[in-house]
Amino acid sequence: MTHKPAFSDESLGYDLIDKRMDILRRIGMAGSISEAARTAGVSYKAAWQAVDTLTNLAGTPLLERTVGGSGGGGAVLTEAGQQLLHLAESLQTMRQHVVREYAANNGNAPLRIPGIGLRTSMRNQLPCTLLSMKSAGRAVGVVLQLPDGSTLRSKITKESAELLGLKPGIELLALAKATAVQIRGTEPAAAQTLNVLAGKVARVDRNAAGDEIVLALEGGQQLVGFGSPGLRLKPGEMASALLEESAVVLAAID
User: For the purposes of burial, counting CB atoms within 10 Å of the CB of 111, is it exposed (0-12), middle (13-18) or buried (19 or more)?
Assistant: First the structure.
């Protein structure tokens, strides 16, 4: 009897237009990770990172390495890998059907909420536009623009930039844990690696270990962070949110 793996919602969250699933599909077609990387326009290392991510989320091997032959070996999809691709294709078809049906019933008005299907422990999720990017060794520095015109910097690996298909002008979600955001007064930050966003205190949850503070940014977005004990900010006061660029995680918006 053939074992049918039960894929997690996380692994099926990657549909066919996701770069990682696209790489898996190309490996299945070419029987080669290097060829899949070449045709997908990413590095060999990035292709392996895509496979590793999907494998971890699926909870079962998706590839089987082959050795020998004139080409020196390659890779084939396991039965689980083939099933994952088939399920992703079915889900994509259903998703397109639902979107078309919604548009037809609502005067063809598009419904677009960035990150609506994203489940994460990160409380800060800010829609933004990629302004510029610059490589520095194995990292890529990314400059993002928020709706109010302010900028936010992030630093990610080259492989992550490849898999996200980053380029100026695309829309992204900037994610950050609330615990990574330091709320202070209006004094500027000294460290160059810190993002500084100004806003007005909207809510405060007092705590002896440090207050949890919600800042309302000028563009209407809200940012959650923590202030040090004794800061004692009040709603309506201006404050600054400090955030390391390495703590800003990027998510692509399909």
Answer: exposed
| Cα 247 to Cα 228: distance, rounded to the nearest angstrom | 19
Final residue belonging to a domain, choices 79, 104, 129: 104
The three-class DSSP label of residue 113 is coil
pLDDT digits (tens, 9 = 90+) for 107-128: 766 656 565 556 677 889 898 9
In tens, the pLDDT along 55-84 reads 877 878 899 887 654 444 589 999 999 999
Q: How far apart are CA 99 and CA 110, in angstroms?
A: 8
Sheet holding 249-252, edge to edge: 151-157, 139-145, 124-136, 171-176, 249-252
Q: Which residues of 12-37 are buried (b: 16+ CB within 10 A; e: fewer)?
A: bebbeebbbbbbbbbbbebbbbebbb
User: What is this structure's pTM?
Assistant: 0.71
Rounded (5°) CA angle 132-198-239: 155
Rounded to the nearest 5°, which phi and psi values hold at 88?
A: -65, -40
* CATH number of domain containing 205: 2.40.50.140
Number of domains comprising the chain = 2
Reported as a single tens digit per residue, the pLDDT across 179-237 is: 999 999 877 666 677 899 999 999 998 888 889 999 999 888 889 999 998 888 999 99
| Final residue belonging to a domain, choices 104, 130, 147 | 104
* Domain enclosing residue 227, as ranges: 178-245
